[in-house]
Write a structure and sequence with these properties.
alpha/beta; binds 1-O-pyrophosphono-5-O-phosphono-alpha-D-ribofuranose; 8-stranded mixed beta sheet; binds uracil
Amino acid sequence: MTETSTQSGGRPSLPMQGVAQPSREEVLHLPRVYISSHPVMAHKITALRDKNTQPPEFYRLVKEIGALLAYESTTNLALEPSPIETPMEPMVGQRLAGGIGVTPILRAGLGLAEAFRDVIPDIQVWHLGLRRDEDTLQAMEYYNRLPHKVDLQVAYAIDPMLATGGSAIDAINVLKRRGIPRLSYVCIIAAPYGLLKLSQTHPDIDIYVAALDETLNDKGYILPGLGDAGDRQFGTF
Ligand code: PRP
Ligand code: URA
């Protein structure tokens, strides 16, 4: 057995046991990291975290929070002139320029993808399945429906939970190999450990976080967090 899977006495250990983690304060002002301060967001996330919130309500809240995150994370999108006629007179309006894509990290990213589509209906959805091995916390790719043709100017990797950062880092690696000019990562809850890892590994992307939590427990779950975001969305306890 490896050093990470046993303690010195041979007793099985947990993957984050003894791993040093940064504090919340240490990651609050990382470059290109945007942490929401909107009161409506805070209100909805509290309802999401509540252990009494059942899957139908949980999924509805993920979509509502996802819509707010979609607004917050798209403030820098490029616009192009769009000549139209109002009932009153011609004018040159504006429309979003270039292809926009969203990559939900399956499964838990699916609710957020629906929210992004509600906000920007002609967004492309590139599905990527990553599953975290709960013993090693390594992300494993099991599904990839990224198209061969790339005509995006910007893509958003989206996932409710940024814990150790393994899944987020792998998802951005996959998107970078497609040569998309601008990439962002969007999540609901981040742990300082994963946020720092993602920011250091991919300093050239924007990272949008709805709430920054305190720490990871020994199993790699976010505290206070909300538990397992996939299970709570889809009722698979
Ligand atoms: C969860 C979550 C993230 C990942 C975060 O997914 O939705 O994808 O774990 O952990 P990390 O930052 O340590 O990689 P999980 O692998 O449990 O799959 P699921 O979405 O199918 O529930
Ligand atoms: N994945 C989750 O769904 N929740 C956590 O706290 C960590 C990873």
